[in-house]
Design brief:
Blueprint (H helix, E strand, L loop, with lengths): L1 E7 L3 H12 L4 E4 L16 E3 L15 H12 L5 H11 L3 H6 L4 E2 L12 E4 L2 H15 L3 E3 L4 E7 L2 E7 L2 E10 L8 H8 L13 E2 L8 H9 L4 E2 L5 E7 L20 E4 L13 H4 L3 H6 L6 E6 L14 E3 L2 H8 L3 H14 E2 L12 E2 L18 E13 L2 E2 L6 E4 L2 E8 L17 H22 L10
Parallel strand pairs: 1-2, 1-9, 2-6, 9-21, 10-18
Antiparallel strand pairs: 3-5, 4-5, 7-8, 8-9, 11-19, 12-18, 13-14, 14-18, 15-18, 16-17, 20-21
C-alpha cells in the first residue's frame, strides 16, 4: 500500500507532524508501535510546554522573553546546543498554543506545587494523556489512518531518499516519511553498552528505571545510524534523567514518582555522604541533573533527607517517605551507617548560615565552609519527624539522535534528504546536548513535529520540491 506521508511514532511530535500534513491536504498514515491503550509514548506522562511570551497570556503570567529562555537553555546545556535550532524552538513555542487549541488541547493555571513555572510553562488540562487523546481525535477527524501495534523494524532508503518501511513483514511505501519514534531509553542492552562498567565493577544501567514507555527501543534510530549511516548527533549517555523513587515501577511511573524535596534538604549516597549542591538553582532548572548524579554513586542509589519544616513545600510523591523521630533511627531504617550518617547531618547543620528562607527565590540561606556547599535554602535538619526517600536514576528520554537542520530533514553525509524527516526525541539532541529545563522536550517535539509534517506534505504534494526552512 502507499500513502503521501508516513509518520512513524505515536507521541506528541508524531501527532503534530500527522496533523500538519493532513491540514496541508496530504494522505497520512501513522504507525504506533504500542497498543491503543498505551499510545502516546512519553508524551502521555507530560504536563506542560515551556513557552516564550513577551507579555502575560491567559494561563501564563508576566513575560518570558526569547533571550531569557535562551539563557536558561544555554545554562542547563553548558553550551552543548545548536543556537539556531534552539532559538527556532523558542520562537515556535510562542505561537503554537492557538494551533494546539484548535486540535482540542486545553490549558490550565499551574498547580500550587509546581514551583517556579507559572511564568514559563503552560500546563495541559488533564495532562499529557488528555493532550495525546485530543490529538488522536483530531487526527481521526482529518482522515489520518492510524495503526496500532505496528512497530517498524527497518526502512528502505536509496541515495538518501525514503522508499518504504517494513512492519511485521509488510512493506509500506510512501512519498515522504517522518521519523518520530522516540529514543532508546527502553532498550536495556543499548543503555548497558552506552554506560559500560564503572570502576567499582558495576553496570550502572542495570539500576536505571524508565519513567515512560516500554516501547522506545531505539530500533529505527540504531538502524538509521548503523545500517544507513545517517548523520548522528549527541552522546549516548546523555539523557533527561531524574532522581525518582526507588520503589517506582520499571516502566511508566511517570511524574508522580519524581522526588521534589531535594532542594529543601540534603541528599546522601549509600556511604551516607553528600555529593552535590542541593540548592544550586531553582528545581525546574536542576531536577533533571539528579538522575545522572545518582547514576554515578555506589549502587546507583541515594537518599533525599528532609525534616518537618519541609512538609507542604513540595509536590508529594506517590509513595510516603521513611519516617523517624531521630536521625540515628532514620539511618537504621535506611540501612545506612548510623555514625557516618549522623556525622554528615551534624556537619551540614553546623555549616548552615542563618538567613531569610524563601523557597520562591534564590535566598541567602547557605552553608559556610562545607564541601560540597549548599548555595540556597540551607536550613538545619533538626525538627522531628525526619523523612527520607530512596532514589534511583529515572530515564525519561535519551539524547543520541539524528542530526538535522531547520527543515527537520534527516542528513546523510552532510546532505539533507528531500523526503525523510525527523522530530521529537529522535532529534532532540540537536538542542539538548546535556541537561534539561522543565517543559522544553514538548517545545522541541511540537516545533519540529510541525516543521517535519509541513515539509513532508509539501514534498509529497510537490514532487521534486526541496523542503524549506522554517523562520
Amino acid at each position: 500500500m502507499g500513502t503521501d506521508v508516513l509518520v512513524i511514532g505515536g507521541g506528541n511530535a508524531a501527532l503534530c507532524a500527522a496533523l500538519m500534513a493532513a491540514e496541508a491536504g496530504a494522505r497520512v498514515l501513522l504507525l504506533e508501535a504500542a497498543p491503543r491503550a498505551w499510545r502516546g509514548g512519553n508524551s502521555a506522562h507530560t504536563r506542560n510546554l515551556r513557552c516564550m511570551h513577551d507579555a502575560p497570556q491567559d494561563v501564563l503570567v508576566d513575560a518570558y522573553p526569547e533571550e531569557e529562555y535562551w539563557q536558561d537553555l544555554l545554562k542547563v546545556t553548558g553550551g552543548r546546543t545548536n543556537e539556531h535550532l534552539a532559538r527556532l524552538t523558542i520562537r515556535a513555542s510562542s505561537t503554537c498554543r492557538d494551533w494546539m487549541r484548535r486540535h482540542g488541547v486545553h490549558f490550565q493555571p499551574p498547580l500550587s506545587g509546581a514551583l517556579h513555572v507559572a511564568r514559563t510553562n503552560a500546563f495541559f488540562m488533564g495532562g499529557g494523556k488528555a493532550l495525546v487523546n485530543a490529538y488522536y481525535r483530531s487526527a481521526e477527524r482529518l482522515g489520518v489512518q492510524i495503526r496500532y501495534e505496528s512497530p517498524v523494524d527497518r526502512l528502505e532508503i536509496e541515495n538518501g531518499r525514503f522508499v518504504a518501511a517494513h512492519v511485521k513483514g509488510e512493506r509500506i511505501t510512501a512519498k515522504t516519511c517522518v521519523l518520530a519514534a522516540g529514543g532508546f531509553e527502553s532498550n536495556r542492552e543499548w543503555l548497558r553498552e552506552a554506560w559500560g562498567q564503572n570502576a567499582r565493577g558495576e553496570w550502572p544501567a542495570d539500576n536505571f528505571l524508565i519513567r515512560g514507555t516500554a516501547y522506545n527501543q531505539g530500533v529505527l534510530l540504531k538502524h538509521l545510524l548503523d545500517d544507513h549511516q545517517a548523520d548522528g548527533i549527541g552522546d549516548p549517555t546523555q539523557a533527561h534523567m531524574v532522581a525518582i523513587d526507588a520503589r517506582a515501577p520499571l516502566y511508566d511511573g511517570g511524574i508522580c514518582t519524581r522526588i521534589d524535596c531535594v532542594s529543601l534538604g540534603v541528599v546522601v549516597n549509600r556511604e551516607a555522604r553528600r555529593f552535590y549542591d542541593e540548592g544550586e538553582d531553582f528545581w525546574p532548572k536542576r531536577y533533571a541533573i539528579w538522575g545522572r548524579l545518582v547514576a554515578q554513586q555506589p549502587g546507583q542509589i541515594a537518599y533525599s533527607i528532609i525534616d518537618a519544616k519541609a512538609i507542604g513545600r513540595f509536590m508529594p510523591p506517590v509513595f510516603p517517605g521513611v519516617k523517624a523521630n531521630t536521625l540515628p533511627e532514620l539511618a537504621q531504617q535506611l540501612g545506612l551507617d548510623v555514625e557516618a550518617f549522623v556525622a554528615t547531618l551534624n556537619s551540614y547543620n553546623a555549616a548552615c548560615v542563618e538567613g531569610q528562607f524563601d523557597h520562591t527565590q534564590l535566598d541567602n540561606c547557605h552553608t559556610d565552609g562545607l564541601t560540597p556547599p549548599k548555595t540556597h535554602w540551607a536550613r538545619p535538619i533538626d525538627t522531628a519527624p525526619f523523612y527520607a526517600y530512596a532514589v534511583r536514576p529515572g530515564v525519561t528520554f535519551t539524547y543520541l539522535g539524528l542530526h538535522t537542520d531547520d527543515t527537520a530533514a534527516v542528513r546523510f553525509a552532510g546532505q539533507p534528504s528531500n523526503n525523510l524527516f525527523v522530530a521529537g526525541e529522535m532529534m532532540a539532541g540537536n538542542v539538548l546536548g546535556q541537561g534539561y529545563t522543565a517543559g522544553v522536550g514538548m517545545s522541541i517535539g511540537t516545533a519540529f513535529g510541525r516543521i517535519a509534517g509541513s515539509n513532508a506534505a509539501h514534498a509529497a504534494l510537490n514532487t521534486g520540491a526541496r523542503p524549506h526552512a522554517s523562520a
